[in-house]
Amino acid sequence: MHYTGTIYRPPVEADSLLLQVTVGCAHNKCTFCSMYKDVNFSIERLEQIEKDLMEARTYHDRVERVFLVNGDAFVLNADYLKAIATKIRDYFPECKTITMYASIQNIKAKRDEELIELRRLGINDLYVGLESGSSDVVTRINKGHSIQEAKEQLERLNNANINHMALLMLGVAGKGKGVENAKLTAELLNITKPKLVWVGTLGVIAGTKLQEEIIAGRFEEATEIENLIEEKTLIEEIQLKNIPFYGVHNTNAIPLAGMLPRDKEKMLMILEDGINDFDEDAFKKTFKRIPR
Ligand code: SF4
């Protein structure tokens, strides 16, 4: 298989076939992110993609799920995505789902009928990096969308019957703002109804704009206890039914996963215990966040 640059995929896609269709991230401007700074954005040629599919067919008897690599593969126009999905179906007719990272602007760039056609070809379960439901926060981190756009575009996705997974980031609002951020984020989730909520925690990566903001005194990081209180508030405020809450990630102080609302009380108790017993100094000395 042909891969360029570091390949990132959601933890829950560990068993999916990873098929590279883009290199890097077309946006590449979120202030906290260093994931694709080492590569220029480009699009893989269909011939190369087909070669990889041919090769993958020789390794795998059965592929039910394909994850399109890399940072915002849904940026590809609908015709190119249709051509890729058709090739995948040629080589893996058993494939049920083609998934990838998608931004709000990627959705906005597609017409309703294109979204419906992409869903018909198996594109589903898009991973959308929302990070926060706060207008101030998404503007400050240069996420590339407003909260109003997120509401409108995720509704269009839902209308096309395309599920999405909401990717969130604890601590992204900064010191003293976690609870307010959690409430606004839960409000967004309750309206937009993701199929899964994924939660990571902000880490400050050397060389990012966010690091410059901290050095210049324009942003102050939340404490670890604040991050845990933010997560607790988020879980308290989510009112969705039968939704996996997935907070198991190497950036999180306390790994946490469960179904909401079934496991709500259990997860809140784990966080409450963690908050009561948390030793901030010891944590700082022994825990190092890496980029997601
Ligand atoms: S967070 Fe996602 S959208 Fe933003 S720059 Fe990084 S990869 Fe691109």
TrEMBL record:
<dbReference type="GO" id="GO:0046872">
    <property type="term" value="F:metal ion binding"/>
</dbReference>
<keyword id="KW-0411">Iron-sulfur</keyword>
<feature type="domain" description="Radical SAM core">
    <location>
        <begin position="9"/>
        <end position="241"/>
    </location>
</feature>
<dbReference type="InterPro" id="IPR051198">
    <property type="entry name" value="BchE-like"/>
</dbReference>
<keyword id="KW-0949">S-adenosyl-L-methionine</keyword>
<dbReference type="InterPro" id="IPR013785">
    <property type="entry name" value="Aldolase_TIM"/>
</dbReference>
<dbReference type="InterPro" id="IPR058240">
    <property type="entry name" value="rSAM_sf"/>
</dbReference>
<keyword id="KW-0479">Metal-binding</keyword>
<dbReference type="InterPro" id="IPR006638">
    <property type="entry name" value="Elp3/MiaA/NifB-like_rSAM"/>
</dbReference>
<dbReference type="GO" id="GO:0003824">
    <property type="term" value="F:catalytic activity"/>
</dbReference>
<protein>
    <submittedName>
        <fullName>Radical SAM protein</fullName>
    </submittedName>
</protein>
<dbReference type="Pfam" id="PF04055">
    <property type="entry name" value="Radical_SAM"/>
</dbReference>
<keyword id="KW-0408">Iron</keyword>
<dbReference type="InterPro" id="IPR007197">
    <property type="entry name" value="rSAM"/>
</dbReference>
<dbReference type="GO" id="GO:0051536">
    <property type="term" value="F:iron-sulfur cluster binding"/>
</dbReference>
